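Researcher: First entry.
Model:
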Amino acid sequence: MNLPITKARRGRPPKVSRENQDTKAELIRSGLEQLTERGFTSSGVDKILKKVGVPKGSFYHYFASKEAFGQAVIEQYANYFANKLNACLLDESYPPLARINNFVNDAKMGMIRYQFKRGCLVGNLGQEIELLPESFRQPLIEILLCWQHCIANCLKTAQMQGDISNTANCEQLAEYFWIGWEGAVSRAKLVQDTKPLDNYFNHFIAALPR
């Protein structure tokens, strides 16, 4: 007996796969919140799962391990921050040094919005690097180098426009910017005030070779 051939229905993809992707994204967002506030070693999976409404036993359905989860959170943060940084530093409606100031002002507003509870995820993880999986080290280094490159390019544009000396080493200045910036962010969290960010940025700009 020949059974009739049933054609596959057209339409939306299975709802389950879409829900899985949405839940995974929600877990990463919840992880970003926890890790920027508490760091990796102090962030338990339970609180992250509870906020998203995912049973504890389901965590490993989305991530192979807490280490894999941390890697996903780092990648998400890197993409988010790169977009934020580029939005400021590539805005040609402002002079180059003003673009860096715009980034600083945006960071200040972000810290105020979250009541100084959240800092820089990369900076936070860098401070506890000896307690983290070794697989985190190289991605964190690469992220900082990417940010450094963005600031260096902005400084080179300022250099071409005559705002800073043509003998200035923009790569070194950019490295100095991020080393000092991470410290300023940590101090701002500690004192719950944006003044350390202002003090640092004003000193950085004043010290640029003219």
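Researcher: Second entry.
Model:
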Amino acid sequence: MRRADRLLRVIQILRRHRRPVKGQAMAEELEVSLRTLYRDIADLVTDGVPIRGEAGVGYVLGQGYDLPPLMFTTDEVEAVMLGLRWVMRRGDPDLVRAAQDAVAKVGTVLPVELRPVLFDTALLVPPSWRTFPDNVDVAALRRAIREQRKVKISYRNEEGTATERVIWPFAITYFDAQRLIVSWCELRQAFRTFRTDRMVEAEVLADKYRERRAVLLKRWIDQEQGAGRGVQGHVFM
């Protein structure tokens, strides 16, 4: 690997993590010695890259630093396009349009030699032949999650029993056939998931729930993992 490419990889590794990254882990990923890694970090700091930390503790990239948008590798472009194609196949109408717009925007900033990788990639997402259509506006539920607003829903379970509940939605998990709203349910005073194809109505309320969305998500994940269910099969919004 060329040194210039390695320096960009160092920055990319730091961008990938929110917490300090140990030098040994970075050196192993880059397949270089720890001494070489420390020298690369020192050179980046000298060039003005805001890397904080020290040997034995770990390193973080300071806020506000970013790479030019053209710094994509071929694999990164294919990964982006594969993800966007999945959204175009599985997302709600607003997300589908957003994915299409994102493809157009990425295409305008890519160098000429990488554009075929974006538009003519051989990585395909097949249609889902067993998708359950949403009965409610998922875009409205996504906005409710971002704004941490309560939602009143009418819901029918698998047996057809109808209930009305007020939920605190904090995540949407996307499966191949359906979408689940991950929530705290005021009726049950517990975490519950609700399929959007079984929702009869969904009304976003003006009231906001009191706990932070990120805290609820962590509590739910901890609960699922503690019960041995895990969340590996979920693709979160």
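Model: Note on the second entry: The chain has eight helices and seven strands.
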